[in-house]
């Protein structure tokens, strides 16, 4: 009995490297799975906004509308009748939804804004408009970006014309969610657009650099946006955009669609993450950022505070102060005004308790029942404090101005009449109970003013109040570590062991993290209380990145523990930028052990989600290397045979050699022409040779292991499901044509013999609908052909014992079993190539399906040309018995595949739309080589003498 696996599969045992790759794939998959389920497993601390009154959307007619887009005005309650009569009196705010976003997503921001307007009885009014962009998939199909931009521009003109002359606005506010933020920035691409109309743009979870480049339309659109907005380095923002405030807000690590590194843009006035915004302090997912109540309130406060200014600043400068206060350094109140913290404050008030402090460097004042009278604490500074810092924590001190410096009056020599206010330097901090504010002052800055006292005020209150003060020499409380990515891998890395009481501030500077191998590694910082002199305690850890706004917080208390999660999302713009650092505000009644731990699974998941965008290019590289080996076998084999996919994989040594050489070219290319491969997602290591080698090898091994298991599964399906697929097709044809099984069999037989008919049908469908649809139809038929070819081989194996018995015992002849699997193996590799091309163009078919009720064909269609070419090639190749025997130039075809794989590595890791044209070109060359075999000629007979001697039996054709 012939062994089925010997003839059909012929797979050799995996190498040890394959087992290592399989382990990497399992770990990688587990990390990605953990990251994807993070939002479901962790609590969402955002409170949802709720509607006070039923919302209404009043449609506004837009001239030259293409039919699939619309414009609406939002209204609810008392304003409904005015809006329905098209009477607007406030500043227009236009909401632009993003990828698959609905115009109804404006409800939270608009409703809270209306409630706030009624609550504060302000003369400032806003009218909210929202754009319906048909919920198009603009993040994966760039062909709609220019259409959406043109419609939003028309909406702005329509809105301005809707206002009566006396209320005609001079500017508008744009709020864009996801890709809607890119549309807001892209309005200025049009030179005819009036840039003076827009003064403020707020982007929510917007990818300011592309998540991935699915087509050249998206690449071109982002290029045009960067051309006018700049990149923060060699391209500054255009002068006509200098007075436009751009605020970018990201969701943080819970947003798995748009990561924090994508929401950062160097030309924004504010880059903030929701988990770092004062008063919000929680990460939001991609949709939650629109309805998170605390964040929505902060945005509304920015709108109101920006619209009313009593300072001498320009509108742009004032708006930047307002947004900085609310999104970065909020010192106390919910509202900002120019006199929030007056520079000079009168200190000698009547009926206060004067508390003259000693020269003790650390002190804590705890008033558990509050105080009936205001308290003023005078803290004299000694001369040695010139090299010192002071950190203070105010607990439940509601007064805006609470910390000052002064010089004692020459009469009293103790007290001060007036003081300089430092309260604006303080920031509110995350807390699970009681409001907390922290401030750190460099005492040399105080001495420069000629002051020798620090003064703290505590207002009379019935609430528990506390004040913790810590004065120290900066070098004693600061340690510096040179960053190594393996810190905290095997056990927690000790940062501080605080074994003394009364101290509250410690600092750790992280040198060299931006230059480390794993910039996107995720770490947890733990503050473990060792000994406390009281039951209730509270400590806060902070992570400060100087080139971004906002502070990340972690909490340790007697009832709640939340480690500080840190990850360096963005690299600094220049080498002169200060290093990121950790700051710890401890409870003075506790000792702590502060440790750093690498979160391995979070790191793997983060790397997988960010770097996984390169997988299509690595899949293409692997398939091309397999094809190269198969063509090399056809050129050198004495049997003119090529082995199965799994036996044609290149050796790991050869792969690493190729990677090393290619990475050298890649490094030179990135340094000379950095715009060829733009950073997408989290992939920004292509110009760094060591990082490129490490991550490229890792990604190759993981992809290779994935492809190994995927192709094994595909072979199993072809081996055991071939008959089932044939029967399903017969039943489908019978049901469609309402005919008997005989006619269905004849139809399938006809398609098997005349596959050019399928190719022509696919071309017609591609031309009239979408190119990807034609590719998918041909892919299904290609798979059907493969199943048929494999089934024929299996049938021969099954019937071989009967034939053997008949021929050997009745005629005395021993029959031969002539199975040639070369055609199956080559077609299998070409089928994988076809599937990858379909995958690269899959977003086109998704967008076509979304807009099918508006248009039967996709316009523009990046996949059309590819589909026409490939289906033409398929119609030719499916008619032939390939590969042709003893043809010339198989060695050259092998080299062509290697060259194409190198091109994929150099140019396609961050530009996925380049993969399909390269693979299509390879497919065309293979087709031409096989089609014009009579012109190409055969190899020299002397090269195949051994083949002629050994291979005497003719090869049987396999249909």
From TrEMBL:
Gene3D superfamilies: alpha/beta hydrolase. The keyword Calcium does not apply. The chain crosses the membrane at residues 16-33, 611-631, 651-669, 746-767, 773-794, 815-837, 889-908, 915-936. GO terms for molecular function: phosphatidylinositol deacylase activity. It comes from the Eukaryota. GO terms for cellular component: endoplasmic reticulum membrane. Pfam families: PGAP1, PGAP1_3rd. Its main location: endoplasmic reticulum. GO terms for biological process: endoplasmic reticulum to Golgi vesicle-mediated transport; GPI anchor metabolic process; protein transport. SUPFAM superfamilies: alpha/beta-Hydrolases. Its EC number is 3.1.-.-. Residues 89-305 form the GPI inositol-deacylase PGAP1-like alpha/beta domain. It is found in: Endoplasmic reticulum membrane. The keyword Cell division does not apply. Keywords: Endoplasmic reticulum, Hydrolase, Membrane, Protein transport, Transmembrane, Transmembrane helix, Transport. It is a multi-pass membrane protein. PANTHER family: GPI INOSITOL-DEACYLASE, NEGATIVE REGULATOR OF VESICLE FORMATION-RELATED. Belongs to the GPI inositol-deacylase family. Involved in inositol deacylation of GPI-anchored proteins which plays important roles in the quality control and ER-associated degradation of GPI-anchored proteins. This is GPI inositol-deacylase. It comes from Aphis gossypii.
